[in-house]
Amino acid sequence: MSRIRLLPEILASQVAAGEVVERPASVVKELVENSIDAGARRIEVVVQRGGISLIRVVDDGCGMERDDALLSLERHATSKIRTSADLAAIATLGFRGEALPSIASVSRFRLTTREADAMAGTEIIVAGGRIETVRDGGEAPGTQVEVRSIFYNLPARRKFLRSENTESRNIEHQLHLQAIGHPEIAFVFLRDDRIVFQLPAAATLRERIRDLHGRELVERLLAVEEASSHGKMRIRGLIGQAGMSRPSRVQQLVFVNGRAIESPVLTAALREGYHTALMKGQFPVTFLFLDLDPAAVDVNVHPAKREVRFRDPAAVREAVVETIRRTLESGRRDWQQQFQKPSAPESTPADLALPATGPVPSAPDAGQNSLPERRDDLADRPYLVPRPQFEPALRPSDVGGEVRGLAPNQDGLGVAIAGQQFQIIGILNKLYVLMENQNGLVLVDQHAAHERILFEELRRRMEEQGVPSQRLLLAQTFELAPRDAEWVERNVATLQKMGIGIEAFGENAFKIDSLPTFLDVSDPVAFMRKVIDGLKSASNGSSPLRLGEEMIAKTVCRHAVKANDPLGYLEVEKLISDLLECELPYCCPHGRPTMIQISLSELEKKFGRKV
Ligand code: ADP
Ligand code: MG
After folding, report:
1. Whose CA is closest to atom 18 on ligand 1?
2. In terms of domains, do 540 and 594 share one?
3. Do 234 and 333 belong together in one domain?
């Protein structure tokens, strides 16, 4: 007797539903995608009890005539593709023709739909995949789908549902994605009869994000700088400025051709693009859109269409990394402005140089403090050179304009540093430099600031002539495990650029005879093993330059001004001006902020002078 049998249609749909309809949020996703594909300008989503008792999606899209409405409930019935050529270049969100029959097979389902110019609409009622009623309906043009009692006929599945709250949150997240992906569509979301959000059609992505997440977040987003040549690919959107991050990926959103996706390629690219602008273990905030030729991306790889495959992942990755980098660097302007006197003229990099100034008259080591014209040597930066004894930490009397011999600004208040007006007040807890500017109080973490400066300095050197290195008294040889050895061999050139004199010395053995000058290492071999361990994991697929940056970021910290090294006035001043000249002054190489503004109005609020 034969044992193989074709599944009855309804059972086949339920099997398919196992993949498409994981939970209420996936129903919402599929239905809203259909509404978007139908050209809706407004989409309303209503859920009760986490979507478990009711999900209703109402749109004002193109609607369906009766035959199509009936057909839409058949498996593999779709209006979106016809040939396999279409499948290779999908421009719509749906394409499989599986969502409606799957959903209808595991719920009590009602579809009403009407084309704009039709005399009457159609209403279809389905229970557990069986059509019960088909009749004329008189709804407004568009489509309304109601899904009640999800999984009522699949108890095993129902048991896997989470709490109503969790399911609601999933639905809300799903709707956020869709609303961000399509700012031009108005969205309304009601949960248990309460309006969760009501988003009018927005003219721009910025507007939509503001409506959804508030002004404060939007103000910290940078518009993505478009690069001219990524072939047919276009990258646009808004991303968080350097130093802005989240402990999870919830606000790391990426859309490929309007579809929110999760992609290891893109996650890695974002991480690499942010690099030192991101704290370890944190995730960036991105609303990033990639528009590319539909033929260059395969969306038919994941049951929930959450993942895609790029035809040329390396090109995509490179374009994203490059775009993020440029955007973060562009953020420097905006960032500086918040510390700037509102009326001050725009400063160009050319006038970022310090005003000419003499040494502090009474300082014992005044010679060292005179400010250099060029910055050729690390020693030009007084705060970079460890000295046995710094000047005493700031005393109030050090702070007046006359003492420093710097030109006071028009109000006779403070000094110009890097074209910006600051008045250094003092140092708190041997760590935070306190300054005043037009907007209020500015706090600088001297350690973080120093790390950033040192990091960029060393990176510049690495790119140009290589980090200066110092010979070891005794060259040392050591052996590595074969995989580590192979890694070192591949990266010898980069290591040498970083000032590490390393070369092969027999099978799996190496000789090291010099190290970067700025390092103070007692056991070079132990140091190398640590560096290799750290870099190997970080270097997966990243460029040699990145590897160098990683190495610098990892070692710099230890050599930056210690949190409680007392700095003299000129050292502080130089520190601040060097910081402001950095490419990414806002955060240290580990992504922590370097400089914080507390505005006068914030203070006024705190003191209850203003509500
Ligand atoms: P797919 O979206 O993959 O085509 P679905 O099962 O989700 O498959 O939908 C089947 C078909 O029903 C769609 O191709 C579309 O023609 C039609 N349809 C579904 N939802 C709507 C809607 N909200 N408005 C207009 N047509 C719709
Ligand atoms: Mg669909």
Report:
1. 34
2. no
3. yes
Give yes or no: residues 64 and 121 share one domain: yes
* Model pTM score: 0.71
Which residue has the least CA distance to atom 19 on ligand 1?
34
Residue-wise pLDDT for 489-515, tens only, equals 888 887 888 788 999 998 899 999 998
With 0-12 CB in 10 A as exposed, 13-18 as middle and 19+ as buried, what is 307?
A: middle
pLDDT at residue 351 is higher than 50: no
Ligand 2 centroid to Cα of residue 30, in Å, is 5
Distance 116 CA to ligand 1 centre (A): 16
Query: What's phi and psi for 248, nearest 5 deg?
Result: -135, 180
* 125 and 192 both lie in a single domain: yes
Do residue 16 and residue 124 come from a single domain? yes
Give the whole-angstrom CA distance, residue 310 versus residue 232.
13
Length of the chain: 611
- Element holding 130 (H helix, E strand): strand 130-137
- Atom of ligand 1 minimally distant from the CA of 30: 7
Q: Is the CB of 451 inside a 6 Å radius of any atom of ligand 1?
A: no
> What is the maximum alpha-carbon separation in the chain?
106
Ligand 1, residue 62: give the atom nearest the CA. Answer: 25
What pLDDT digit, counting tens, does each position of 268-285 carry?
A: 999 989 988 887 778 999
Distance 367 CA to ligand 1 centre (A): 78
For ligand 1, atom 8: residue with the closest CA: 97
Pick the last residue of a domain from 293, 317, 338: 338
Ligand nearest to the CA of 105: 1
Domain of residue 405, CATH code: 3.30.1540.20
**pLDDT over threshold 90, residue 114:** yes
Is the C-beta atom of 98 inside 6 A of ligand 1? yes
Cβ(142)–Cβ(63) below 8 Å: yes
Residues with Cβ within 8 Å of residue 285, at least 6 apart in sequence:
217, 221, 239, 240, 244, 245, 246, 251, 252
Locus of tokens 């395969």: 298
Residue 95 Cβ inside 6 Å of ligand 1? The answer reads yes
Containing structural domain, residue 494: 468-557
Residue 350 lies in a domain: no
Start-end of H helices in 182-312: 205-213, 215-219, 264-274
Best mutation site among 35, 68, 70, 72 for ligand 1, i.e. most ligand atoms within 8 A of its Cβ?
A: 72
- pLDDT tens digits along 425-468: 888 888 899 988 888 899 999 888 988 888 888 788 777 777 78
Task: Give the helix/strand (H/E) hosting 10.
Answer: helix 9-20
Round to whole Å and give the CA distance between 52 and 325. 44
Q: Are residues 153 and 46 in the same domain?
A: yes
The atom number, within ligand 1, closest to the CA of 97 reads: 8
Q: Ligand 1 pocket: which of 78, 103, 178, 302 to mutate (most atoms <8 Å of CB)?
A: 78
Residue 154 is part of a domain; what is its CATH number? 3.30.565.10
CA of 212 to the centre of ligand 2 (A): 25
Please state, rounded to an integer, the average pLDDT across all residues of the chain: 81
Q: Which of 443, 436, 437 is nearest to 340 (CA)?
A: 437
Separation between Cα atoms, residue 32 and residue 74, nearest integer Å = 19
Atom of ligand 1 nearest to the CA of 96: 3
Residue 180 lies in a domain: yes
**CB of 61 closer than 6 angstroms to any ligand 1 atom:** yes
